[in-house]
Amino acid sequence: MSGGVYGGDEVGAIIFDVGHQSLRVGYGGEDTPKAEIPTTLGVWEDTVEALDSGQNVKKHYNIDVTAIQVRKKDMEMVSLMKDGMIEDWEMFERLTEYTYKQRLHALPEHHPILMTECPWNTRLKREKLLELMFEKFNVPAMYICKNAVLAAYANGRSTAMVVDSGATHTSAVPVHDGYVITQGIVKSPLGGDFITMQCRQFFEEKEIELTPACLVASKDVVRERDPPRWTKRAGAQPTSSWMSYMVRELLQDFQMNCLQVSDSPYDEDVANTLPMKHYEFPTGYNDDFGSVRLMIPEALFDPSNVKGVGASILGVGPLVTTSVGMCDMDIRPSLYGSVVVTGGNSCLQGFSERLNRDLASKTPPSMRLKIISANSSSERRYGAWIGGSILSSLGSFQQMWLSRQEYEESGKLILERCA
């Protein structure tokens, strides 16, 4: 630990990419994360007899996919994130402990960590994160980096317009020479969760029952569109938050398997000519889905026809043009020249092609437009994590780590070095 450079090349850094839907975590230098853990935890309380005064309430947490699916009578599902930022620090601490012990089988004090954050993260939350990792987990060194910058790196760019469509929102973030241009960030509240809500409304109108697989004990094979015949698994009555979380999982599966973004603005006649997709629900009910596959994701690109969405909310195309317009004239050509598409929502079939079409009509003729979208869906989904993995394994990055020694000497002031 000399001269402020941490550890050299032989120490494997751990990359934490915290998103609203899940935490992606793994070792730097690898292609994909080791684990993806939901950032929604099952929480329930127990009263414990205390020696002195009577009763204490003790909180318990169920973490990770398998534990969450166990039905408990009073277990509420609570997300530790809000607006892309960490909201509940107690839960985040538990999640980090679980990640080290159960998924990575690593000791925090042996590995430097690279944390991602959203571009609008507050100074207070960054300080809290720094303090938690150094004081509680005793990490030897850490670095905090904006996820948009990392997504650009993952696609081989240091200057880019990063279009990140995740669970809670879609954002356009301009990145120039590895720095986020804060005044150019534009975001809209339409993301994966909004699409899930649209799917749910559609099924409710069609009176299709949504029952998660973990509640189905057995089912019979039925004909297409026939009422399902199934038996319910016995057990405690779950809370409504658990039930809606499980239904959301089911709807997300439907989204990934069936939905598709139309190449051009949605037209029902054109949509009806496309092949239908077959989908079977956990209860055994099955059906072919046609034009609705294109109608639901259309809201991301053209929210004007959606009930309950204000006219002020922008589609993905206008997000990009608005963001570029807020940046300096000199860098606009380079932003249009590398529009990087990332985030779990961008895995919808046809997402990049539609964005390309929407932007091509709006881009000034003097500018060259190029959409950069990784071929495999996992690369788009884990864009920020992969960027972190690349960055942490570069030799030139090794002197950027904020070491434990520096933290003890200067405290939270060292955060100034994380741009």
Automatic annotation (TrEMBL):
Transmembrane spans: none
GO biological process: chromatin organization; nervous system development
Keyword field contains Transcription: yes
Compartment(s): Nucleus
Pfam families cross-referenced by the UniProt entry: Actin (PF00022)
Entries under SMART domains matching the protein: ACTIN (SM00268)
GO CC aspect terms: nucleus
Coiled coil segments of this chain: none
Principal location: nucleus
Cross-referenced InterPro entries: Actin, ATPase_NBD
Annotated keywords: Chromatin regulator, Neurogenesis, Nucleus, Transcription, Transcription regulation
UniProt keyword Mitochondrion, yes or no: no
Source organism superkingdom: Eukaryota
Similarity section: Belongs to the actin family.
Protein name: Actin-like protein 6B
Organism (species): Tetragonisca angustula
